Amino acid sequence: MTRTIILWALVLAAGAFVVQWLEHQYLARAFSREIYVAVIGVAFAAGGVWVGWKLTSRAAPGPFQRNGAALASLGLTGQELKVLERLAAGQSTKEIARTLGLSPNTVKTHIANLFGKLEVSRRTQAVNKARDLHLIP
């Protein structure tokens, strides 16, 4: 945190210095008005790009690691986990049945079990809760 404060203090100090220097040069009429406007415009544009880059840069996420403790505490079976992953992919009940080689009624039973174990009532709630618990990527 201290490093960030010192960095911003230096950036602001350098900016204040440059503005004061430009004001002095302007009063001394060393350059034309257009040059001052261009220099200030370029400085603000570069500063905006730099701030945007700093605010949006993030470390690359590591590989997904499933939360084994939550998986065990909920008591999800392997087949229910597969159905949950397909739900997260946006597949319908029939598509999940076709993909996993199950009957649609079996998939519906797994979905009902998932809803009960995750304590939700909708597919989107189940997917969101599973992602919050790090059960699915």
Task: Explain the overall architecture.
- This protein has seven helices and no strands.
- The chain has 137 residues and is mainly alpha-helical.
- Helix 4 (78-88) crosses helix 7 (123-132).
Portion in strands: under 5%
Distance between the termini: 31 Å
Number of helices: 7
List the uncertain runs: none
Mean of pLDDT: 87
Q: Classify the secondary structure makeup into a structural class.
A: mainly alpha
Report the major sheet.
none
Task: Give the ordered list of helices and strands.
Answer: HHHHHHH
Layout of strands and helices, then pairs:
Blueprint: H1 2-27, H2 33-56, H3 68-74, H4 78-88, H5 93-100, H6 104-118, H7 123-132
Helix pairs in contact: 4-6, 4-7, 5-6, 6-7
How would you summarize this macromolecular structure in one to three sentences?
The protein has 7 helices and no strands. With 137 residues, it is mostly helical. α4 crosses α6, α4 packs across α7 and α6 packs across α7.
